[in-house]
Amino acid sequence: xxxxxxxxxxxxxxINAMVIPSVETLFDTTIADLHLPTQGELYLREHFEEILSxxxxxxxxxLERYQMEAQRKFLEHISGSRTEFEAVAEKLIxxxxxxxxxxIQRLSKLMAETMSEMPPxxxxxxxxxxxxxxRAGSMFTRAIHYLLERCGVPSEVGGKASGRLDLIIPNYxxxxxxxxxxxxxxxxxxxxxxxxxxxxxxxxxxxxxxWIVTLDTDFGTxxxxxxxxxxxxxxxxxxxxxxxxxGESSVRAxxxxxxxxxxxxxxxxx
Length: 270
Description:
The chain has helices at about 5-20, 25-35, 40-45, 50-80, 85-95, 105-115, 120-150, 170-175, 190-195, 200-205, 220-230, 240-245, 255-265, and strands spanning about 155, 165-170, 185, 210-215, 235, 250-255. It is α/β, with parallel strands linked by helices. The protein folds into 2 domains: about 5-140, no CATH class; about 155-265, Restriction Endonuclease, CATH 3.40.91. The protein has a 6-stranded mixed beta sheet with strand order 1-2-3-4-5-6.
């Protein structure tokens, strides 16, 4: 990578860090905006899927607002430092903040049209896309963890010690001692067809229950059969569990997650 590209990457990181809050702040703001701290356990249990969807939708809406502001600052920066980019940058600032559809969709289209005129956009477009995927994954993990804890189900977010497992119930230490008295949750907000089969899913499913949790509604029979044949369960929206895969025991509704955990393991396993 050239010195110029290094400097560009540094500038993008600097602008993003200055404008876009941490995932912790985004999540806390989302929870507050939805007034979830005021809701009781029964409400959260009965509306688990709906609330999870609302958290993800609101969280990504907030992220998009901040990314739009980061884009504006980035374009202002490069148009100010490179006069040959000024006209293109002004067009992008004007057009990507107007019209219908999501900001990300409009930005991607405009990026494709102007990449040859403005090479630095390649780096910025990649940064925007990668951050959205990363923040969506982190938001989903935090949302599941938050809802389970509020419903009285203890859980622990995986880290380096656990091989970066997504979510462990009740915690990693207990699961190590008695895997049959715990559940590992593999969390994939979307794109199950491409992302469900990871090495640690196959390895850990031989020791104890591993359940996949998703909001995806776009996976098909082949994916479901692979999951079933590995002895796994997938928790997904009701439109999939009770309609598309009705009667398939390996496919469960998101609304069943808390109850299924409590029926499988003691509430306070030792």
